[in-house]
Amino acid sequence: MALTKQEWVALEQKANELRNLCLDTTHWAGSGHIGGGMSCMDILTILYFKYMQVDPANPNWPDRDRLVLSKGHAGIAWAPVLVSKGFNDAEQLKTFNLTGSKMGMHLDSNKVLGVDASTGSLGHGLPIAVGTALAARVQGKKFWTYCIMGDGECDEGEIWEGAMSAAHFGVTNLVCFVDRNDCMIDGKTEDVMALEPFADKWRAFGFIVKEVDGQNINELAEAIDFAHANETNQPVLILANTVKGAGVANIEGDYRWHYGAMDEASYQQGKDSLESYYQARLARAEKEGK
Amino acid sequence: MASGLTYTAVDSTALSTAEYYGKTMVELGAEHPEIVALTADLAKSTKIGMFGDAYPERFFNVGIAEQNMMSMAAGMAKAGLVPFVSTFSVFAALRAADQVHADICYQNCDVKIIATHGGTSFGQAGSTHHAIVDFAVERAFPNMTLICPADGMETVNAVRAAYENPGPFYIRINRGFDRVVYDSTDYGFQLGKAQEMRPGTDITVIAVGSCVFQACQAADFLKNSDGLSVRVLNMHTLKPLDVEAVQKAILDTRRVITVEDHNIIGGLGSAVAEVMADMGKGCAFQRLGWQDSFSTIGLHEDLMSLAGIDSNGIIAAVREVMKKDFELDDDWEDEV
Q1: Looking at chain B, which residues constitute the CATH 3.40.50.970 domain(s)?
Q2: N or C: chain A end with fewer CB closer than 10 Å?
Q3: What CATH number should be reported for the domain whose range is B195-326?
Q4: pLDDT tens digits, residue range B291-313?
Q5: pLDDT at residue number B112
Q6: Secondary structure class of B112 (helix, strand, coil)
Q7: Does the pTM exceed 0.90?
Q8: Does A60 contact B at CB distance below 8 Å?
Q9: Does ipTM come in above 0.90?
Q10: Are the C-beta atoms of B228 and B178 separated by less than 8 Å?
């Protein structure tokens, strides 16, 4: 087991708290990228609350680990994480997306503490992360760079340019994730622009691929441990099979919830389902954890 | 500035403009370990490979992937390095425009784009390899500083200025050899300040890049043949523009011509016209450049002639503009 039962349960608690905060933020903002936010919440949770060496009191600490959220529209999930970690004031979530707010749909690295790269234009994040990881090499620093991509954005050619670079330069101080929720704005990825055989594509581009259940914190931990222990010169991609809108029963798996507005009733329905989702997840951790 | 350089008049004819850039990068690299360099399969063509030969561990050739290169440079800059990035101007400005916009300019990253083969200097390669809209694109990016040096010596100064001043830079230089405008680097280059190449009271020719030499030639010719006093300004920094020098030219000479190896839309001509419009002062005015048309295949000097941005074209334009009427005084009531 990558995690002790105690760690697993604690991370489940944190992930639940963050899922709720993400849903609340969507509610306060009136709308948001709730589907793709929820699908990568477990990845964000385990990175910030188990692995990443960061210092909220010194957000520009040169030796900190970095995260590039290539699927920048998941800012509505990342912002609550950065608040919970202590980078930013929780009150900022209540003005998310509002005119003049520091925080909005795509987080700005010059405005939101803890954000290492402004993203939003899809396909840019992996190359940015490759650059950051290579900077560590040039500077002789030991920090890790993490990159979370969406599956839909892998239609962008720049993702594959970045993938070639990561493999060519042997960038192994980088851990990549694809949040494989199977959805994009106009439909299922396989209907709009087929990605499969997706894992094979990454392998062909020189990556070692670890395929996991992206809503299983222990599996994610095992994959990250694997990437950290990687002694080859090939970069690791964690292909995280996820569910769009994970935990919010009334939107789960529905591609139309890439972005949406929630009325009071669906918000309450969502909150209720998050609780039952959490109980099921806790039960799994209790059962499978050691 | 630019202390310790040893370039001479002999070098100015022996080195191409890009070789000045390459040599300057080798010098800067020795002084500053945080400088890294990236190219997209154009190490030799852009001369950034000279940096790579000297500091291979700080050099990244990403293959033919300009978008990736710009994003990687942004990632490096966010982690504290100062990346210099080189490819052809047309690809730096257009192929990777979204990356320069979102990753470099929006984040205000310390990335220096040295874009070679500018304007129509890649002559025979034709319009796919000519950059005649890059000024328009780069000028519109917030945070961007835009320079187009007149020759090799000025390129040395521009590249050093880019290192010394934080934030994104786009420096457009030409392929091959430029006609020599400056025989040393020690002529008082100031970022954002136009250089008066010729004093004059009848008309002002505001030129940039390879057109500066041509404008000086035209001014010298017109002085002897037509008895005209032609002021020539080298507007090496297109952004931030030396608004004061433009305003002074408008007020002093009331006749202005702009010359650039660029479309007349969005570049130097447009920038000067904006100053003029903001001032509200009438002025006889003409923009020389590509007249909203694509270039063609040919030698750079022939293309400059075709576009009317060589000395002959400038002479003809000056004679034409000298015949034009303009507002003589500040009294607008007498105008129809």
Answers
A1: 9-172
A2: C
A3: 3.40.50.920
A4: 999 999 999 999 999 999 999 99
A5: 98
A6: strand
A7: yes
A8: no
A9: yes
A10: no
CB contact under 8 A, B102 and A110: no
Residue A121 sits at the chain B interface (C-beta within 8 Å): yes
Peptide bond into B56 cis (omega under 30): no
Residues B154-211 pLDDT 10s: 999 999 999 999 999 999 999 999 999 999 999 999 999 999 999 999 999 999 999 9
Note the CATH number of domain A5-288. Answer: 3.40.50.970
Picking from B60, B63, B101, the nearest residue to A164 by CB comes out as: B63
**Alpha-carbon distance B327 to B331, whole Å?**
8
pLDDT tens, position by position, A142-155:
999 999 999 999 99
Q: CA B3 to CA B186: how far, in whole Å? A: 9
Q: Strand B195-198 to strand B230-234: parallel, antiparallel, or no bridges (unpaired)?
A: antiparallel
Chain A residue numbers touching B57 (CB-CB < 8 A): 138
Question: Which amino acid is it at B216?
Answer: C
> What does DSSP assign to residue B119?
B
pLDDT digits (tens, 9 = 90+) for B8-61: 666 667 889 999 999 999 999 999 999 999 999 999 999 999 999 999 999 999
Beta bridge partners of B205: B232, B257
Inter-chain residue contact B75 with A120, CB threshold 8 Å: no
Residues of chain B contacting A158 with CB distance shorter than 8 Å? 65, 67-68, 71, 99
Residue B273 has pLDDT above 70, yes or no: yes
CB B117 within 8 A of CB B162: no
What residue in B sits closest to A164 (Cα-Cα)? Answer: B62
Contact across the interface for B72 and A130, Cβ inside 8 Å? yes
**CATH superfamily membership of B9-172:** Thiamin diphosphate (ThDP)-binding fold, Pyr/PP domains (3.40.50.970)
Choose among A120, A133, A161: nearest Cβ to B65. Answer: A161
